[in-house]
Amino acid sequence: MTDTPASRDEPETPHPVEPAPKAVFADGMAAAARRAGFSPAAEGEPISGHALLAAMGGIRGLVEAVVPGLVFLVTYTLTRALVPSLVAPIVIGVVMAGLRVAARQTVTQAVGGLVGIGISAVLALLSGKAEDFYLSGFWINGVYGGALVISIIVGWPLIGLAVGFLVGDGVNWRSDPSKRRVLTLLTALWAGLFLLRLAVELPLYYAGNVAWLGATKLLMGIPLYAPLLIVSWLMVRSVYRPSPPADGESGN
After folding, report:
1. DSSP code per residue over 66-123
2. Where are its TM segments located (predicted)?
């Protein structure tokens, strides 16, 4: 009598295919470009107030980005009391996250903002200095600015990588002088934004001037980010023009 293994009659279960590191990297860079607001430029959406607002997270996203810091600044300016000034933005952050949950909207941005507020509050509470509420922002600007500068030096500008993978161009832009020049310049402009914030805000931090530090941080936030985003859209579209519709796709 011959025994036949059951495995000969049953199909083998295929093993799940792990995503290649290159694909994971590409998806990550494309996602970073979308978060930065480059998606409308890649999709050919006209530059408008609506497109700009959407790229910055909409009205709710703007409120969630600005209000906690503004509440801290106003509360501390009026009371000169550290603990109430730290509690107030945390309460605002919790309320905004709760509103998103109630509306069944994504809470990623609100929760991320709340975590950032919490870290800032802990730093200020541990040191007893109100200006340390802004300390984490210096690290963020320093890391982003430094990473962008280094990417230019080594010949792989990060804005180029992000936009390239977003539009499906990968790293082919490196062999195109026009694209490489524009994307390198864009990387330098964004690096300049982060480093400019440090250059202006750090002296105010070391001087302990909380009022001017808070006001400057607000003024160098969205008011600078929005114009640079528009310039970035224009520059990306100058080298990534939409392809004309093929015959039979015009709808006629």
Report:
1. HHHHHHHHHHHHHH--HHHHHHHHHHHHHHHHHHHHHTT---HHHHHHHHHHHHHHHH
2. 82-103, 110-128, 148-171, 183-206, 218-236
pLDDT of residue 9: 53
HEC string for 143-181: HHHHHHHHHHHCCCCHHHHHHHHHCCCCCHHHHCHHHHH
Where does the pLDDT of residue 172 fall: very low under 50, low under 70, confident under 90, or very high at 90 and above? very high
Looking at residue 188, what is its pLDDT?
97
DSSP H or E run through 201: helix 177-206
Query: Hey, is 91 helix, strand or coil?
Result: helix
What is the rounded CA–CA span in Å between residue 48 and residue 83?
42
Rounded mean pLDDT, 169-175: 90
Q: How would you class 68 by CB atoms within 10 Å of its CB: exposed for 0-12, middle for 13-18, buried for 19 or more? A: buried
Q: What does pTM read for this prediction?
A: 0.81
How far apart (Å, rounded) are the C-alpha atoms in residues 175 and 182?
Answer: 13
